[in-house]
Design a protein that fits this description.
The complex is a heterodimer of chains A (92) and B (455). Chain A starts with 9 loop residues before the first helix and ends with a helix. Helices cover 48% and strands 0% of the residues of chain A. Chain A has one domain: Orthogonal Bundle (Non-ribosomal Peptide Synthetase Peptidyl Carrier Protein, Chain A), CATH 1.10.1200. Chain A has four helices and no strands. By secondary structure, chain B is an alpha/beta fold. In chain B, α8 links the parallel β14 and β15. Chain B is globular and about 70 Å long. Classes of the chains: A mainly alpha (92), B alpha/beta (455). Chains A and B meet through α2 of A and α6, α7 and α10 of B.
Chain lengths: 92, 455
């Protein structure tokens, strides 16, 4: 029985599509719950995915992800936090 | 420089070797803000050694290379064996606590995942003595147990003795032509507890003219900042995945003397692109955790690999045996064609062994983990051919489990196996295409992959 997920905003839906396309995920983008953890059990993403995703984000939005950013864990915590960070820092 | 290079042949190792083969004022490590000399490092290692609890084993779970290094040095000074695991899963930590109940954990912060006492690491050069000669350690002192996944997914320890670790750093420095009048500035993007990272980023500065960067170097922008911090000649120690990301990104790197890649085969195209873009030389190291680094090649120039001095290979029934001074003979899991005892070509992986992100696993072991899940009646893991070279390539699991959902199976698997080997797709079937003898013929598996559209 699937549980209801939080509604994706337009920005989150766009990022979810980028995520699914970049990482070849076998799920519909709209099924990613914006508040669920990106890394860990749910999607099973790992460090190579983080690298690929950072690259795609830098190309699409001009936002460079860094490890030494104290907020790195927070930024990658969920679709919502990642979309929020991109909205704040995007240059394209 | 003291007797770092050249004076000792790897074939007749001395019985005792100094902890450090560098002068006290030589730089060993550098962070974004601090430089650590050999003298300071020795003082900090002595200060930490004096505070370590008495125990035969220490599980070094530190993250920053400087802390991993000072913890490793302090353990050596106390005669304690360091247990090194790249990025252990909770299941591994449980297995470690069971197998080494007298061990303690060394970490930068309390770690609640592990049922062993945690000792917090420190770096306090002012509290120890670092100016006198570094102590001598017996070449046969057991320095570390480096863990890899066994065929069942349980951690398997590989013994590393002090003499062989030192011999290998000296031969690496010789191969890459590190010179003491212009010490190399190394930026490693790989963890120090992995055999490749241990040899090529953590230990190299102890005996070879090099300083190693300590800090984050994962995303292209991290790597740029790290390289800018280091002095020339700069060397980047990395993996094909990260090299690919660097090539795809827009960051413009400072001049590079060399790039070293390991953990997976690097394509000649990528090596050539990297050499052209950064006007540098790209080398690959071929290694195995059992033995450590074995051979190198300049990817754009050579198809054949050349072993390090002191390492020879011999063909044997169904494989290749490696002889390295100071190490028991090891067997290579990769399929290799010997040209002679020091040169070879790689033919690819064996059927069951898969590699990804510097880790390896056995398909049989992963399948076993899948079968252990409650409600799973039958199942198998299938790997695409390009698993170790294509970042988005992942395993697929076919499962017969009428009572369990895909999400439940995924959650159960994530408790048991490393994220690198979690299947991207879990496909539920009514039954697997087993033949009359109960086997899954390769042809039937290919048909499955074709039917479910695997890349």
């Amino acid at each position: 029985m699937p549980t209801a997920i939080d509604h994706q905003t337009a920005e989150e839906a766009e990022l979810a599509r980028l995520l699914v396309e970049t990482l070849h995920l076998d799920i519909p983008p709209e099924s990613i719950d914006p508040v669920m953890p990106l890394f860990g059990d749910e999607l099973g993403l790992d460090s190579i995915d983080a690298l690929e995703l950072a690259l795609a984000i830098s190309r699409a939005y001009g936002v460079e992800i860094k490890s030494d950013d104290a907020r790195n864990k927070e930024i990658f915590a969920s679709l919502r936090s990642l979309a929020g960070y991109i909205a704040e820092h995007r240059t394209r | 420089m003291s007797a770092a290079c050249g004076s000792s042949s790897p074939f007749s190792p001395p019985d005792r070797l100094p902890l450090l083969g560098r002068a006290p004022e030589d730089e060993l490590y550098r962070t974004l803000s601090v430089r650590i000399t050999a003298g300071q490092f020795l003082a900090a290692a002595r200060a930490l050694a004096a505070r370590l609890p008495p125990a035969p084993y220490v599980v070094n779970l530190c993250h920053n290379r400087l802390y991993v290094a000072v913890g490793f040095a302090a353990a050596l000074l106390r005669g304690q064996v360091s247990i090194l695991a790249g990025d252990p899963t909770e299941q591994w930590l449980k297995a470690l606590a069971r197998r080494y109940p007298q061990a303690y954990v060394l970490a930068e912060a309390p770690d609640l995942r592990v049922a062993l006492p945690v000792h917090i690491v420190g770096f306090e050069p002012e509290r120890g003595q670092g100016d006198d000669a570094p102590p001598l350690l017996a070449a046969d002192q057991l320095a570390a147990l480096v863990l890899t996944s066994g065929s069942t997914g349980e951690p398997v320890p590989h013994a590393k003795h002090w003499g062989s670790l030192v011999a290998r750093t000296l031969t690496a420095a010789e191969r890459f032509q590190f010179e003491s009048d212009a010490p190399a500035g190394i930026v490693g993007t790989v963890p120090s507890q992995h055999m490749y990272g241990l040899e090529s980023t953590l230990l190299l500065p102890w005996h070879a003219p090099a300083a190693s960067f300590c800090g984050d170097a994962f995303y292209p922008s991290d790597i740029l900042a790290a390289l800018q911090t280091m002095q020339e000649p700069r060397w980047l120690v990395t993996t094909p995945f990260q090299l690919r990301a660097l090539l795809a990104s827009e960051v413009s790197l400072p001049p590079l003397a060399g790039i070293i890649s390991a953990t997976a085969p690097l394509s000649a195209d990528q090596a050539e692109a990297a050499e052209r873009r950064w006007q540098t030389k790209v080398f690959e190291i071929f290694g195995a955790t059992e033995v450590g680094a074995i051979a190198t090649r300049r990817t754009t120039a050579e198809e054949e690999w050349q072993t390090y001095s002191g390492i020879t290979l011999a063909a044997e029934e169904g494989g290749v045996r490696v002889f390295a001074e100071g190490t028991p003979p090891g067997r290579l899991a990769d399929a290799i064609a010997l040209v002679d005892s020091t040169r070879f070509r790689l033919l690819g992986r064996r059927e069951d062994l898969i590699k990804r992100a510097g880790k390896r696993a056995s398909l049989a072991g992963l399948t076993q983990a899948l079968m252990e899940i409650e409600g799973v009646e039958d199942g198998i893991f299938v790997a695409p051919e390009n698993l170790d070279s294509e970042p988005t390539a992942r395993l697929t699991a076919y499962v017969v489990a009428p009572t369990r959902s895909v999400a439940e199976i995924r959650a159960a698997l994530s408790q048991k196996i490393e994220p690198a080997f979690l299947p991207r797709r879990i496909i539920k079937l009514e039954r697997l295409p087993r033949n009359a003898t109960g086997k899954l013929p390769r042809q039937a598996l290919r048909a499955l992959s074709a039917r479910f559209g695997d890349p």
